[in-house]
Design brief:
Layout: E1 3-7, H1 16-29, E2 33-36, H2 51-61, E3 66-69, E4 72-73, H3 79-92, E5 99-102, H4 107-110, H5 120-138, E6 143-146, E7 151-155, E8 169-175, H6 179-184, E9 189-194, E10 203-204, E11 211-214
Parallel strand pairs: 1-2, 1-11, 2-3, 4-5, 5-8, 8-9
Antiparallel strand pairs: 6-7, 10-11
Helix pairs in contact: 1-2, 3-5
């Protein structure tokens, strides 16, 4: 059994040096994973650090601990950009990247502030298409996609991820909604939380895979 920490990189944890220090301390203490959140606006005026820039810094400051966004709100991003960022981090860390994804929660103010899609069902559909694109471009083979939300003309992306057959993907799900868990079953792991947000339930990444735990909940 392996264990990881997630830190909300806003408020008291918005200073990049603080997160880097926490990650290096976690690695030295024997933790197996260190993950950051993906938000743009949490509350009016609250300080927020960009997760992708932080992960680049964490990749350079550590040598063994697993890293990644937990979770990236894929419907708020261009999926091909997330694919490129993830591969770059995977190669930077010599295969220590884990890509956590979800529809983004809560939508207000993170999505409403910028006029992004707030309907949960539509964001779920965008997540499904986005995952098809991410895994498709990671393959390195000629790839094209035509969906309701995204279009990709035939092209081939490189370089490929270090990890084979791909970077592990963990899909977030909020109980009691089962649709995200059916989606997660097609990938390498799940990051479940409770709908009342009182607890963060440990998420098993497949049989014998790591567990995630939210540091803000002990």
């Amino acid at each position: 059994m392996r264990f990881g920490l997630t830190f909300p990189n806003f408020g008291a944890y918005a200073e990049p040096g603080v997160i880097v220090a926490l990650a290096t301390a976690a690695e030295e203490a024997g933790w197996d994973g260190f993950f950051v959140w993906d938000h743009i606006v949490v509350a009016d005026g609250m300080q927020v650090a960009d997760p992708w820039v932080l992960l680049g810094a964490l990749g350079q400051a550590t040598s063994s601990i697993k890293l990644g966004p937990m979770v990236a709100a894929l419907p708020r991003h261009r999926p091909w950009v997330v694919a490129r960022q993830s591969v770059t981090l995977d190669r930077l860390t010599d295969g220590r990247m884990i890509l956590g994804v979800g529809i983004g929660y809560p939508p207000d103010p993170d999505f409403t502030t910028f006029g992004d899609v707030t309907d949960a069902r539509e964001r779920a559909d965008m997540l499904g298409e986005g995952l098809s694109i991410v895994t498709g471009v990671w393959s390195g083979a000629p790839f094209e996609f035509e969906g309701e939300h995204y279009t990709v003309l035939r092209s081939r992306f490189g370089p490929p991820p270090v990890q084979k057959p791909r970077i592990p993907i963990w899909v977030a799900g909020m109980l009691p909604n089962l649709r995200p868990f059916r989606r997660a079953a097609r990938f390498e792991g799940v990051f479940p939380i409770r709908s009342d947000m009182e607890d963060i339930t440990p998420g098993r990444c497949g049989p014998g895979r790591p567990l995630c735990r939210d540091a803000s909940h002990g």
